[in-house]
Structures are given as structure tokens and as C-alpha cells.
From TrEMBL:
Protein name per Swiss-Prot or TrEMBL: AraC family transcriptional regulator, transcriptional activator FtrA
One Pfam entry name: HTH_18
SMART domains: HTH_ARAC (SM00342)
Classification via InterPro entries: Class_I_gatase-like, DJ-1/PfpI, Homeodomain-like_sf, HTH_AraC, HTH_AraC-typ_CS, INH-QAR
Occurrences of domain HTH araC/xylS-type (ranges): 214-312
Residues forming coiled coils: none
SUPFAM superfamilies on file: Class I glutamine amidotransferase-like (SSF52317), Homeodomain-like (SSF46689)
Amino acid sequence: MHTVAVLAYQGMSVFETGIVTEVFGLPRPEFDFPWYALTICAEEPGPVRLVGGATLHTEHGLDVFAAADTLIVPGVPDVRDEPSPALVAALRRAHARGARIMSICSGAFALAGAGLLDGRRATTHWRYAETLRRRHPAVEVDADVLYTDLGDVLTSAGSAAGLDLCLHVIRRDHGSKAANLVARRLVVQPHRDGGQAQFIEAPMPDDPADDRLSRSMEWALGNLATPIAVETLARRAHMSERTYLRHFARATGTTPIRWLIGQRVHASLALLETTATPIEEVAAAVGFESPVTFRHHFQQAMRTSPSAYRRAFHLG
């Protein structure tokens, strides 16, 4: 059973830890494979003060934390302080033996302080991005994304983005069907790509009934196998191409083409998991112009090839 340990710290909000507990800690009898075993740890076993005056008590310290298969740092008490030498040692020890290490929100400061992000791309909450750059200039800080996945080290933006990252990890470990089922139980969107913008300007339209943009996106999702140009989407929304691009960016934080690529990759997952359809036919079925293009975008999004993904997650 894959062990997950999340670090509790003095003065913490329970939201980020609650995300981890909800995703990895609850039993999942709907699955016929072993789920994760979660442990909440602290630098020193005992009481941990929480925001609001409550107290969490854990018997598990950094020895248990460092021994887990996946370690999660959901935040730090103060982004201006260095992580303790004991925490740094635990993170380095776990990373050296091949553990997967994740951060949520300001937890990236602990990973950076341990040297795990030097020369590597990482994210944190957009409010802390400049502080992370200044304090850790060796880190390639990307403040525009929801999460990053380097395989061994994963970072996420603000609190809710931690949920996106946790679902991404389930998708990576057990496939999109499992991630979708967990998302449904949580009543959240099953997949937001890590490259999606942290902050999206989405003002209410002058006319709430004007859902031309959403109708064009719904049409695109129903016609992924066909070539779709921005001009086509704009025409369906009864907008000029320039106006459509502006509205699309304000509503989604990305471009129509980038959004389409993400939707096509996501649509391919079920075909790879549940059928033996050749990769060439999967590419065509979700609208990629060639298998080469499909493999390129799949690799960019999933950090693996379609064939390797099928070998890992095919349900048959």
C-alpha cells in the first residue's frame, strides 16, 4: 500500500491538510485496488495549534514523515523564515531514496529551502511568487500555473490548486477513471490542466443569458474529432475572431488552441485505458492531425507517451 504523509505545522489552517486527508485518507471501497495509507505528521509529535484556536494532536514525527512513499508539505508558518534543519534533513533524506515530494501553496518554500527545487521549475501562490524568486534565485518560479510535475517533485499554487494537484497524482497513479470518480465524490471539476492560469479575470457579462462562449466550447467538445479553427469557434459564438480571443482568455486564462489540445489529450485517456485501439486511430478519434502531433502534446501534458500510459493504466 502506497504511504502518504502530510506535515502539520504550528499555526496552520486546516484547509490544505483537509484536501490531502479527503483525497488520500478516506477509504475508497469502490476501487478494487489498494488505496493510499495516510499519516499526519509534525516536526515534533504532540499538539499542533490551528487557526481558530483548535488543536490537532499527532503521535508521528519527522521519522515517519521521511519514511513515506509520498511526502506532502501543505504550507509553512512564515514564508520569510528558513525551514528547520530537521525538516530540511527529512526532505533531503526522503528525496535521496526516491520518495515523491509535493508542496501546496507556501509549502514550496520548504522544498526550496531543502535545495530540491534548485535549477528546476516550481510554482506557489501568486502572492508569494516574487518572494520565492528573491529568496531562492536558483528556482525557476512560474507564477502562472496551477501546478508543476517534475516526476519526483511536484508543486502547486494556492490552496484550491492543491486539490488539482492531488487529483493529478491519482490520475498519474491509477488512471483518469479513478481520478474522475474521486472528483465526482468531492463534487469538483475532474481535471484542470496544470498549465492553467492561477488567476482568471471572469467578470459577470452585461447579460447573464449571453452564454455564446460556453455554447461554442460545448460544441467543440462534441466535435473534437473534426478540425476546429479559432475562426470556426468565433463564428459559432457570433463574434469576431479578435473579440472571441479576448473573451476566451478572460474566461479561461488560456487560448482556444491550447484549451483544445488539453481537451483532446484528456479525451484520449479513456480510449487508452479501456480499448486496444491503435495509437494512430486514437489520435484521429480525438482530433489530432497526426500520431506524431498526438504523441508530442501527450508527452507535454502527461510526462509520458501514449503507449507507456496504456501499459500502465489499461484496465484490461
